[in-house]
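FIELD: query
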Amino acid sequence: MSNLLDSSYDQLQQWVRDQGWKPFRSKQIWQWIWQKGCTDFNRMSDLNKQIRSRLQEAFALEHPEIHTVRASSDGTIKFLLRVGWGDLIETVLIPEGDHYTQCLSSQVGCPLACTFCSTGRMGFSRNLSSGEILGQVLVARDYLARRGDPVPLRNLVFMGMGEPLLNWPQVEKALRIIRDDAGLGFSHRRTTLSTVGVPAPLRHFAESGLGSLAVSLHAPTQELRSELMPRAASLVSLDKLIRVLEELPLKPRQRITLEYALIGGVNDDLKHARQLNKIISSLRCKVNLIAFNPDEAIPYQAPDRDSVLRFEEFLRSKDKTVFLRKSKGLDIDAACGQLRNKEEAPGI
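FIELD: result
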């Protein structure tokens, strides 16, 4: 029995037609799923009993199950969710003043094995379905509603477990429902996809207009990127990735976000700032600097504050738009993959 959350609107429309029902039933069912977050067909009160019974016979209505919730002193909320046959994935709500941003996972684990990433340590199990991706939003939205939180969920970022462009068919399907006004109804300006750079689907995403693009660089040379991100660096060279980014269609005020995690003594020196400035000089971009969030199982350290400030000030002196992103949820293992690794570690 398929999960109705995995259906596109066109698929639902076709199924409704096949039942001999009037077309407006598709919109009613769709709104119950996405706008009202319904988890029980019997609660779909404007559908008659016959329709509700037929839906129950044909579909499941499965949301991810909350396994663990941790709340940080800074307001960050991390969920460990159970999907499918028991796979655990993470999603995080990050407070941003007057709204929350949710970090979404697109895979169970990750095949890229970046050396500084906790998710990279766990390996790769499988891609998430579109319904499992979208279900993370439904769970978070329901959690906020049940606790009476007045702060809305307004932004979505594909920056959780996995490389979204290696699961592009399901991510694209999810993005279309995220953008759909009758679905989840998020603006493209409030939806961001983060990728290490997978050229073909990267172009498809950029041309689709389904969201904003963030690219994880984390190193200013191919050699250093090969040390930190060996599989990403072998997937596409840094030079080629920059050329791909140069050719992407951008709207007049649109810019690509470049993400750079500053790792103490590894990529945070002024020479790295100079190298980074040189390779991105041809791009219409902004730079997000992120101080590395330490994990006891990973042999890297957070950068010292002076190094971070020098790196930031140098890029600003070269007229680059730079944002220094603070690490949040340090007390709840909020960095990607940390909580799941601890939950599954023997003896913990």
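FIELD: remark
The chain has a mean pLDDT of 93.
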